[in-house]
Amino acid sequence: xxxxxxxxxxxxxxAPYLEGQAVIGLIVREPRLRWSVPDDLAxxxxxxxxxxxxxxxxxxxxxxxxxxxxxxLGMSGSLRIIVxxxxxxxxxxxxxxxxxxxxxxxxxxxxxxxxxxxxxxxxHPRLSGLGPEPLAPGFSGDYLNQAARxxxxxxxxxxxxxxxxxxxxxxxxxxxxxxxxxxxxCPAGAITVADYxxxxxxxxxxxxxAIERGGTTLRDFVNEAGRPGYFQQSLxxxxxxxxxxxxxxxxxxxxxxxxxxxxxxxxxxxxx
DNA sequence: ACAGTAACCTGTTTGC
DNA sequence: TGCAAACAGGTTACTG
Length: 272
Fold this sequence. Notes:
By secondary structure, the protein is α+β, with helices and mostly antiparallel strands. The chain contains six helices and ten strands.
């Protein structure tokens, strides 16, 4: 679930409750996440003030004076602000305690992670090799075109590769390619620079639109208040097999690209 | 370096 | 209705 817009929605939601607040406790009920929660995480965090809540790719960064808590939501993780006495549900794996509330981590599939890093988080092995942020300067059609030279991989897989550009998962890859009028199976190296400029803009626009609508909730994504996003109402192709294209009414087609379900309009996204 | 596959784990949907 | 298989938003370790 959580791609860049959902992680950013979570960041914006929790930041006001955490920044400037001291951690007074940590309850780890289930440490077996994608990467095991470090044994000494409570020792690192307790007493520390969260100075800033940032995002890099799909990672959330909680900065303190002594290091950074790095959280990844995986495919089914969510963070909620809990005020008062709300009973722990199944899969509520971690609570981070503050004076007046707590941050509760829920993750049925346990593909997420809570990591600690004492140095510059950008040097963490999981972050150091990442490509540019799609919403920051430095990401452009010219950059994509350069990175795609000689690549035979399908363009959909190419833009989902975090070494090329971060934050784009299956939903937004499909949606961005539709907006750009590019077929998902087109080889990355066969796309013109003009089309890459259109694609880069489509990526920025779809991510920005999704953030404005609080992300996409297909099953279980919820924000810090436990409420869903509503960008799913704006999806043009994802999970719309057989339904009419919002632009030309042609039936949306489902195919498999690199083991992932993919959706496109055969008329608006012609084969290369 | 690149491309493709399997794996991590649980819940829900689909098909027989 | 019941059960098993297939599938799901992400990342990474492995293969050739």
